[in-house]
């Protein structure tokens, strides 16, 4: 057995943090980081993966060492899973499944660069990929409808193709101000830095 993997725990709720630390302490394969040490893995424990949690995940991933992130959530639907993965989470677990052995396995998988998800969630994501992001009957899947509107998707696709604001406005018959507002709304909603980041995020999340 090699050296234990140094891990830190991040949670917005101190009770969730304490429970995760306790579970990790039962596994000899991992250890808590000591002062001055950088974690190789961060275990982030949340109730639901919403905007505040998305911001925390991105902050963790933007640190100098860019540690792998294992996300443990009370509930995770397909849309939340896509956003988490697109933002840098390596492994996803539901809290009810995150006993000490499974949590340790997820940490070790994250260190190896593997991506692990609950089987039913993986099946859901694969079904989404197979049907082009649409649910039965050709209706857009709920997460996709909430992610980008048709208008936003059209604008972002043109941004991805390298078109400027004026070109997009002329092609789609919008004012330049409308195009600017649409792009601004997208960057604010997904907490991305600029147009290029918005395109990269949308592509990784399967929104384009």
TrEMBL record:
Coiled coil: none annotated. It comes from the Bacteria. One of its GO terms (molecular function) is DNA binding. Keywords: DNA-binding, Transcription, Transcription regulation. The keyword Secreted does not apply. Residues 141-206 form the HTH luxR-type domain. GO terms for biological process: regulation of DNA-templated transcription. Signal peptide: none annotated. PANTHER family: DNA-BINDING TRANSCRIPTIONAL ACTIVATOR DEVR_DOSR. This is DNA-binding response regulator, NarL/FixJ family, contains REC and HTH domains. It comes from Streptomyces pini.
């Amino acid at each position: 057995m090699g050296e234990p993997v140094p891990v830190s725990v991040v949670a917005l709720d101190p009770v969730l943090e304490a429970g995760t630390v306790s579970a990790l302490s039962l596994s000899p394969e991992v250890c808590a980081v000591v002062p001055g040490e950088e974690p190789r893995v961060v275990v982030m424990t949340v109730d639901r993966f919403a905007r505040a949690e998305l911001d925390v995940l991105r902050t963790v991933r933007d640190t100098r060492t860019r540690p792998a992130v294992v996300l443990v959530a009370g509930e995770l639907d397909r849309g939340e899973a896509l956003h988490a993965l697109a933002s840098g989470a390596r492994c996803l677990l539901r809290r009810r499944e995150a006993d000490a052995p499974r949590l340790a396995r997820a940490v070790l998988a994250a260190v190896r660069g593997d991506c692990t998800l609950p089987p039913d969630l993986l099946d859901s994501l694969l079904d989404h990929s197979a049907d082009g992001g649409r649910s039965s009957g050709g209706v857009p899947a709920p997460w996709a409808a909430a992610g980008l509107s048709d208008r936003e998707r059209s604008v972002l696709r043109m941004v991805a193709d390298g078109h400027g604001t004026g070109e997009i406005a002329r092609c789609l018959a919008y004012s330049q101000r409308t195009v600017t507002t649409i792009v601004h709304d997208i960057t604010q909603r997904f907490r991305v830095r600029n147009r290029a980041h918005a395109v990269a995020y949308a592509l990784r999340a399967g929104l384009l």
